Fold this protein.
Amino acid sequence: EDIWNDIVPMTFKEIAKLPNLEQRRVGILCLGLERLASEVQPKLINKETVAKSTTWVDVNGNLVTTEFNDTYELYEVSGEYFNEGLESWNKMDNAYFVKLKDTSTDRIYFIWVNPRSVYETNTNNPSWGFMLNEINAIQCIAWTIQTNVPQGKIEKIIRQGDCILIKPNGEYTPLERVRHLTEKEYKTLLVAES
């Protein structure tokens, strides 16, 4: 307690330089998302809202259908926040994250995404022709969900926080490698979430 007031909180740049991934995770957790965002000054690339309907069970055990709007924001963070002191061959490109609100708790989350992979997932084209303005926030949030069920073989998707349940529509052969969901699958097959 006698040194508590002398502790100087770390900045995001200092946290990003920590050698261990787990140390960086704890550092970012302690820093908090609001302070992280203010320090890295993210640039809003795309913002989209999806009208959704889901069914929940109320405290009395009754099924209740809830309508809500779910907003996703895609941000870009300059690589300069990660590159201080690194050799030129080791420097990072800009980084990207999706900002979203948890539908049941109203907590805000940032999920880092790979825009080139998002582009490839939604266009089936190689990313060498990729342009940032060709992806959107919904494609990015869909990309965060992975499955071994082939495209066209999903009946519905149910999301309970980080737990994703995917019901196939009939017989299918599981993919050898998992794949990311597309924007179309996310918008049309997600039937319930909490």
User: Anything to note?
Assistant: The chain has seven helices and nine strands. Helices lie at 12-16, 21-31, 33-40, 80-83, 115-123, 137-143, 183-189. The longest strand covers residues 43-57. The two ends are 40 Å apart (CA to CA).
